[in-house]
Amino acid sequence: MRSQLLSIVLWSVPSLAFAENMVGDTGLLTPALKMIGALAVIIGLLLLFYAASRKGFGFLPKPRDGSIKILETKSLGGKKFLCLVSVRGEDMLLGLSPERIECLSKLSPKKEFSAALQEELGEDA
């Protein structure tokens, strides 16, 4: 009998402690509003940081305008790639592998479609 009474008292003490804390609780609305407000502030700061970096305030590195531009890269499988590069207005097709870089072809400069069509029609006639 004593052991049952002791176990009932021990089990009820923690529940009484929690019940005292729950009396002053107003519900979940206040903590939820605080959480939503904090989330809005964090998202706002992230958007402000992003907008400032896009305007050029120097938070993120800017792309440089150089004489070498990578126009396109295609994977051939493994660690082998084809890369179309423009160097000072001249286009080159490069083959890239872990062992070497090789110039496969120098391409003619880009032409307008109408100029290329006239050239092809002129050669056929």
Tag the structure with descriptive keywords:
single chain, 125 residues, alpha+beta, 26% strand
Q: Topology of this protein?
A:
Blueprint: H1 2-23, H2 29-55, E1 68-77, E2 80-87, E3 90-96, E4 101-107, H3 113-124
Antiparallel strand pairs: 1-2, 2-3, 3-4
Describe this structure in words.
With 125 residues, the protein is of the alpha+beta class. It has two domains: 2-55, no CATH class; 68-124, no CATH class. 49% of the residues lie in helices and 26% in strands. It is built from three helices and four strands. The protein has helices at 2-23, 29-55, 113-124; strands at 68-77, 80-87, 90-96, 101-107. The protein has a four-stranded antiparallel β-sheet, with no helix packed on it. Strand 3 (90-96) and strand 4 form a beta hairpin. It is elongated and about 105 Å long. The chain starts with a helix and ends with a helix.
